[in-house]
Description:
This protein is of the alpha/beta class. The protein has three domains: about 240 residues, Rossmann fold (3-Layer(aba) Sandwich), CATH 3.40.50.620; about 120 residues, Isoleucyl-tRNA Synthetase, Domain 1, CATH 1.10.730; about 45 residues. The strands form five sheets. Strands 4-3-9-10 form a four-stranded parallel β-sheet, with helices on both faces. β14 and β15 form a beta hairpin. The longest helix is centred in the C-terminal third of the chain and has 27 residues.
Amino acid sequence: xxxxxxxxxxxxxxxxxxxxxxxxxxxxxxxxxxxxxxxxxxxxxxxxxxxxxxxxxxxxxxxxxxxxxxxxxxxxxxxxxxxxxxxxxxxxxxxxxxxxxxxxxxxxxxxxxxxxxxxxxxxxxxxxxxxxxxxxxxxxxxxxxxxxxxxxxxxxxxxxxxxxxxxxxxxxxxxxxxxxxxxxxxxxxxxxxxxxxxxxxxxxxxxxxxxxxxxxxxxxxxxxxxxxxxxxxxxxxxxxxxxxxxxxxxxxxxxxxxxxxxxxxxxxxxxxxxxxxxxxxxxxxxxxxxxxxxxxxxxxxxxxxxxxxxxxxxxxxxxxxxxxxxxxxxxxxxxxxxxxxxxxxxxxxxxxxxxxxxxxxxxxxxxxxxxxxxxxxxxxxxxxxxxxxxxxxxxxxxxxxxxxxxxxxxxxxxxxxxxxxxxxxxxxxxxxxxxxxxxxxxxxxxxxxxxxxxxxxxxxxxxxxx
Length: 466
C-alpha cells in the first residue's frame, strides 16, 4: 500500500516498524459541543484506513484522544452553569452517539487529557531539564527555535513564522515563536492541577505528545488528522516529542482536506455551520453521511450541499437494494451453485482486485466505491432471472466484505411488517391473481405513501421499507 506522506510530500510505500503491526494515532475532538461535518471527515476517513489495514491482515493499535481540558470547555461550562468535567462528559457521550451512527468503531484506547495529567507534567519537566522549555511566573513555554527541524511538516520557514508571530500582553516569552506547554490558572473557576510551577493546566499540543507516547511508544507508524491540524498542532507535537524522545515521532503523516458548505468555507457567522447531529435531524442517516464523506478522495476538498447529500442517499439506496434483493433470494431460493454460477462468481474477483488497487493507492475510497458498484451491477445481472441459494449467499458475502471495509451496509435490514400491512400485501396479491390491476395499483400506492415499496419478483413479492 502507498500513502501520501505529508512529511515528505509524496506517495510512499507504507512500511511499518514491525511487519503486520500498525501503531496509529488520530487526533480526536475537543469535547465542548457536538462535532461538525468537518470534524467528521477525519473520523470517518481514518476509521476506514484502520478497517482496510485490518482487512489486509494487519494488527492495528488505534488510539484517538479526547481533549477534555481546554479554554473552550471552560467557556462552555460558564455558559451552561456546570463544571468543566461535566461539560466534557456530556459531549463525550454525544460524540459516541454520532460516531456510532457514522459506523465509526471505537478506538482501542480513548485517552483523556484529564486522566493523563501526571504523565503530562513529567513530560513538561523532562523538556525543561533538557533545555527545550522554560518557566516564567507559572507558565511554561517551549523554545521552538532550539528544535532544529521546526517547520518541517508544514514546510514553513522559521523566519516567515517569526515575522507572523506575536506576543500577547500577558505573555512573557523569550521568543515570539515559543508556545505554551503549561498555563497557569488565571481565574478561580478554571479547572487546574497542582504542578511544580503552581496550579494550572496543560497546553493543547503537549497533550497529544504525551498520550501518544504513553499508549504507542516513542515512535509511531502513522499519525493522522485534519489539514487544519498540520500547523501549529502537529508541528508542535513533532518538536516536543522528538526533543523529548530523541527519535522520529511518526514515520508517516496523513491529513485530510477541508470541507466547504455550498462552496463556501464553513463558519458560524455565515450560518452554514452544520453539526452531524443537525444533519441527522434533517433526515440523513449516519451511513448516508459516511458515504458522502468517502465519495471523494480524502486529500481533495469536498463540498457539502443538499444536492450532494441527496445523491449520496440515492447511491447508498442502490447498494442497500442490492443487498435486500440478495437476502430475498437467499430466503426464497434453494439449491447449490451450477457450474455456470461458479464461473460467474469467479469473475467477481476482478472487482475485488479493483477495490484493493484503489485502496492501496493512497486510500482512494472514491474509486473503491466505483468498484463496488461495478460488482453490484454484475451481481444484479447474474440474478435477474433467479439463481441458486448458494450463489446468492456467496454473492452477498463478496459484496458485504468490501462494504464492511468502507463501513457501509452495517445496519441490519428490518422489513418485517405488522398484520394490517401484511393483509394489504396479501389483498394486492389476490387482486393481481384476479387481474384486478386497478385495486392492486391502489394498494401499492397506499403502501408507498406509508414508506413501503413492493417489488414483484419471480420468487414472490419483496417488501422494502423506504
